[in-house]
Amino acid sequence: EIPLKPGVRPFLEALKKKHIPCGIATTNSRFLTEAILTSHQIHSFFSVIVTGDEITNGKPDPEIYLKAAEKMNVSPEECLVFEDIPYGIMAGKQAGMHVCAVEDVYSVKDREEKLRLADFYIDNYEELL
Q: Global pTM?
């Protein structure tokens, strides 16, 4: 029942076509994450998935992003994080990554804070195509 954000599928397809690796770093459980990826048939776009089940400290601690970068075998400075909540943006920045804030109906009240914390902001993924 959780919809994809507008433009996510074409954006992921474009990244895959360019051989740009993608990972997921979510504090949600592995079970919920796998269920969402399967229901939207987007599992194949991600080479690495790190969930809240695998970390000690949640966001805004950078642990989850650093673990994802390590599993992807890339340095944090080479990563671009897409985040829709302030704690996630803080975690990405503390990990030394570039962060794009993403519009989200559940965190619309935090828009100004997200704009202040992130490197840039998008209303939807269609803007990146």
A: 0.94
